[in-house]
Design goal:
The protein is globular. By secondary structure, the protein is an alpha/beta fold. Helix 3 crosses helix 4. It has helices spanning 49-58, 82-86, 90-105, 124-135, 156-165, 184-191, 198-203, 223-231, 258-274, and strands spanning 5-12, 17-24, 33-37, 62-67, 117-122, 141-145, 167-171, 178-182, 209-214, 236-240. Helix content is 34%, strand content 21%.
Length: 276
């Protein structure tokens, strides 16, 4: 298939612009769309996402990757927007995904509305994708990589210190930057406990769903994949032996590992089967 064409777009999101990359193979429209949702401290240009989007486009899909408005990352892949990052709630991320899906469904980003749309979410982005898929009849297939099963990520003592200080400091392990998380995040989780209940949402997902998770995940334990699978027995659970949270991918990207290649292969095969 021809080399995919990349175009860049900006949409208004909850905390600022949502930066969107669209990759399509020439002549492939109208193609099924696949929207890729990055996780916490992730962004559209992180490591594995551009090569995965290229793979999707070569397989005949319209590949949509984006920086959520609260990612904190600019168009050059740098964390230059720490205030947005600090106020990036689950609800803001969910609203941003809704905005992207609306633009995809209306054909605003593509030359025509796609015949079907799938979500692929990594880590926290997997949780956001689950919440959205449970809400929307417009999601035809779902794939989650290393997904969280709960929005309740912090122990009581951490929450207490966070409240007392007004912020929680988060270190970017790659660059050493210290980024703030304000109490907006806690307020959102507490005020919207039911709406952000990922495990409960999992039980409401009706689209075909593939759950992928490494059994050596150092960030989100593989037990969370089993929680999701138990909540949604029709979902297909695949545990990747020996794989960590990003399946060996690093940033800048240094090529696929066997585990990442397996994840790419399984994901594309699943999407080809379920998006027609």
């Amino acid at each position: 298939m021809a080399t995919p064409v990349l175009t860049r777009h900006a949409l208004r999101g909850s905390l600022g612009d949502i930066l969107v990359d669209l990759r399509v193979s020439p002549g492939a429209d109208p193609s099924p769309a696949v929207v890729v949702v990055h996780g916490f401290k992730g962004f559209k240009d992180w490591g594995m996402f551009p090569p995965f989007a290229e793979r999707l486009a070569r397989a005949g899909f319209a590949a949509v990757t984006y920086n959520a408005s609260g990612s904190g990352v600019d168009a050059h892949g740098r964390f230059t927007l720490p205030e947005r990052f600090g106020r990036d709630t689950f609800s803001a991320a969910l609203n941003d995904l809704g905005r992207v899906l609306d633009e995809v469904a209306h054909g605003t980003l593509l030359q025509a509305a796609p015949p079907a749309t799938a979500l692929v979410g990594h880590s926290r982005g997997g949780g956001i994708a689950i919440l959205r898929a449970a809400q929307s009849q417009g999601v035809s297939a779902l794939v989650t990589w290393s997904a969280i099963s709960s929005s309740q990520r912090w122990p009581d003592e951490t929450r207490r210190r966070w409240r007392a200080a007004g912020r929680l400091e988060v270190r970017n392990q790659r660059t050493g930057e210290v980024l703030p998380l304000y109490t907006d995040v806690l307020d959102d989780i507490e005020a919207n406990r039911d709406a952000l209940d990922i495990e409960r949402a999992a039980a409401g997902v009706r689209a075909p769903w593939l759950i992928l998770h490494g059994d050596a995940d150092e960030t989100v334990d593989a037990r969370e994949a089993r929680v999701l699978s138990a909540a949604a027995p029709a979902a297909e659970l695949r545990i990747v032996p020996g794989a960590g949270h990003t399946y060996g991918a690093v940033h800048p990207f240094a090529g696929p590992t066997p585990a990442l290649q397996q994840v790419f292969d399984r994901t594309v095969s699943f999407l080809c089967t379920n998006l027609g």
